[in-house]
Amino acid sequence: MKIAVLPGDGIGPEIVDEAVKVLKVLDLPFQLDEAKVGGAAFDAHGHPLPEHTLKLAMDSDAVLFGSVGDWKYDKLERHLRPEQAILGLRKNMGLFANFRPAICYPQLTHASSLKPELVAGLDILIIRELTGDIYFGQPRGRREAPDGEFKGAPEAFDTMRYSRPEIERIAHVAFQAARKRNKRVTSVDKANVLETFQFWKDVVTEVHAQYPDIELDHMYVDNAAMQLVKAPKKFDVLFTGNMFGDILSDAAAMLTGSIGMLPSASLNAKGQGLYEPSHGSAPDIAGKGVANPLATILSAAMMLRFSLNQEEAASRIERAVQAVLEQGLRTPDIFSEGTRKVGTVEMGEAVVAALKAQ
Ligand code: NAD
Ligand code: IPM
Ligand code: MN
């Protein structure tokens, strides 16, 4: 089982270290190969996604990714910025299906910024299309406004687009995932304004005809944002495009207590996957030893389940995380009265200890 380990920037190396410790206790035949990515790779090799890093990822069964980005790179030309590394990995590996499960563990009901009764028992699966939409549409750039009131003025533009096969394949993923859950899919769009998302809605409706056992409803993205904080438990599978999924998954993260709890899996058609926390490099807390490593550890569990066919090991990790929460250990982001505040390393080592104790 070849795993490419790409820690990246900011808190990336701190949280990936803990996930690697957890993997190592499992005593499975892993080959872990590490490479630089993001700002760290730019500093060392002049590019955020060097050829050898991309090749290592492409040749592996799975990628364990930390996070990339730092304000100090914001002035670089776009193609050299750290974020291009994760976008390049997603595109080059064809990782079109992004799973972001937002689960509120019973121990963290009081860590959420919402009232406990709204989040108790929450279990939503966000499925985000990851290689299309305005993220990758061409053309994009800067120019003089070609027409309108501000004709001739400098302007910037991006292209929002989705092709039929791109929508079809992710719709199948969403319906099939719903089959293993409560059989309800909410497709989130902006069909009332955007042609791209009217097309999305039409194609999703067509694909749905093949899944008569699944309940489908459609919701505009603005309403979805509201419903997520009003009555989040009404969702089962929340299914949407790349940009809306980016935004809604951060909002959903807070229902679980912290963005430091939200793992993710990004899969391609070959079953290869990249596993990363849904959060970023958190430059504001990097180097302080306080980042929550659980989203990354839970992403490693998803990696075992989805790419490495190790269901038992995956659920062992998930049980160990629950055990540690049960012991009352909390990084500052999920701390509440009556629990014990710990740092990144202590949290990771507690998961390791809980695994050994099973
Ligand atoms: P962020 O997710 O890094 O941080 C947002 C807030 O959440 C911060 O206050 C941070 O301290 C907190 N936070 C995030 N992860 C945490 C954790 N594990 N434990 C405790 N607190 C945590 O988002 P941002 O500040 O908007 O972006 C910072 C950088 O990260 C930017 O360069 C951005 O582009 C990049 N980014 C990268 C990825 C990725 O690598 N996939 C994802 C999102 C953002
Ligand atoms: C995420 C991040 C990325 C995204 C950035 C860093 C490119 O926010 O993984 O959610 O927008 O997809
Ligand atoms: Mn994001």
Report on the architecture of this protein.
This protein is of the alpha/beta class and 358 residues long. It has two domains: 192 residues, Isopropylmalate Dehydrogenase; 145 residues, Isopropylmalate Dehydrogenase. Helices cover 39% and strands 18% of the residues. It contains twelve helices and 14 strands. The strands form three sheets. It has a ten-stranded mixed sheet with strand order 2-1-3-12-11-4-5-10-8-9, with helices on both faces. Strands 6-7 form a two-stranded antiparallel ribbon. The longest helix is centred in the middle third of the chain and has 16 residues. It is globular. 49% of the residues are buried. The structure holds nicotinamide-adenine-dinucleotide (NAD), 3-isopropylmalic acid and manganese (II) ion (MN). Nicotinamide-adenine-dinucleotide binds next to helix 4. 3-isopropylmalic acid (IPM) binds next to helix 4.
CATH superfamily of the largest domain: Isopropylmalate Dehydrogenase
| 3D shape | globular
Low-confidence stretches: none
**CA-based gyration radius:** 20 Å
Ligand inventory reads:
nicotinamide-adenine-dinucleotide, 3-isopropylmalic acid, manganese (II) ion
Distance between the termini: 24 Å
The number of domains is 2
Q: Indicate the structural class.
A: alpha/beta
CATH class of the largest domain: Alpha Beta
Question: Largest beta sheet, briefly?
Answer: 10 strands, mixed
| Percent of sequence in beta strands | 15-25%
Mean pLDDT: 97
What is the N-to-C order of secondary-structure elements (H for helix, E for strand)?
EHEHHEHEHEEEHEHEHEHEEHHEEH
